């Protein structure tokens, strides 16, 4: 079960294709680590946790590490391995994420070499946010080396990392150290299943879809705030620091992109603003073509401006766009 809000648990729903992809990785293993990026709250962690279960059922020894909350799950048959990881995390209250990764890497080496484990999965949630981009580059390279030059032979390794950090994909993408796949908010059909499971009185499915674009985290925030989307919009305005200075400086362009987000990819769009929008995680820039193979789970629609999805650029959710719209209206 997943915690949808403090008082509601909802089982993992849908992501059918995303789950099939995991079965595929389980069967074939990986040649390079995989980095999955996507809008904040689109369901990356939920998918990664579900993946851990599937890999375990398929005979993998699984290490799942949530660097943000410094939590881990070790589905590994050797107690010593589990103990080492829990000791590291318990050792010092503020043990750094880097130390955890160091220990994880040495544990994986042991799993291959000393314990002769044949199928190993390492799933790391929020790697870039936790250890920073510079260090993350080094660790991704180290993980690639483990796959390419293992300390002993193994059958299959699966290494998946997630990030909602806007710029990480370009940093890693410069090298051939990892495959990088995007994941989107839930599909219309999948989201409807989630919507049905939310208790209590609620706005119509159409309305919730239009305002969240299928983002489960935004949906849970709405639920918590009794579906008062104005509150959420105010929260985004604060969190993304949509200050008067920022708004006034870029007003002309912001007014254009709340109508059509694809303008961000036009050549005369100001580079500084484009960078700000990406770094503040307001938009996803340079969306991959909607070729199904390039995406984890279903890609977003080709272009659907109602939910803020352009062909090349998208708002993380329609609520992000509404926050900008609201900030533009304030005198
Ligand atoms: N497939 C799903 N079925 C049921 N609930 C889901 C599903 N995907 C996500 N959720 C719920 O939606 C919320 C947000 O999901 P999650 O934390 O996985 O997103 P995320 O992309 O990892 O977010 P962040 O960018 O903040 O790390 C959680 O409460 C989670 O339980
Ligand atoms: Mg997450």
Which labels suit this protein?
single chain; 331 residues; alpha/beta; Rossmann fold; 2 domains; two-stranded antiparallel sheet; globular; binds adenosine-5'-triphosphate; binds magnesium ion
Describe it:
With 331 residues, the chain is of the alpha/beta class. The chain has two domains: 2-182, P-loop containing nucleotide triphosphate hydrolases (Rossmann fold, 3-Layer(aba) Sandwich), CATH 3.40.50.300; 188-329, no CATH class. Helices cover 47% and strands 14% of the residues. It has 14 helices and ten strands. It has helices at 16-28, 44-57, 79-91, 97-113, 127-131, 133-148, 168-173, 188-197, 205-212, 216-224, 229-239, 244-257, 271-279, 318-329; strands at residues 2-5, 8-10, 34-37, 61-66, 71-75, 119-125, 156-163, 179-182, 283-284, 314-315. It has a six-stranded mixed sheet, with helices on both faces. Strands 1-2 form a two-stranded antiparallel sheet. The protein has a two-stranded antiparallel sheet with strand order 9-10. Strand 1 (2-5) and strand 2 form a beta hairpin. Helix 4 runs parallel beside helix 6. The longest helix has 17 residues, at 97-113. It is globular, with a radius of gyration of 21 Å. The chain starts with a strand and ends with a helix. The mean pLDDT is 91. The chain binds adenosine-5'-triphosphate (ATP) and magnesium ion. Adenosine-5'-triphosphate binds at residues 2-4, 10, 12-15, 40-46, 126, 164, 194, 216-217, 220. Residues 2-4, 10, 12-15, 40-46, 126, 164, 194, 216-217, 220 line the site of adenosine-5'-triphosphate.
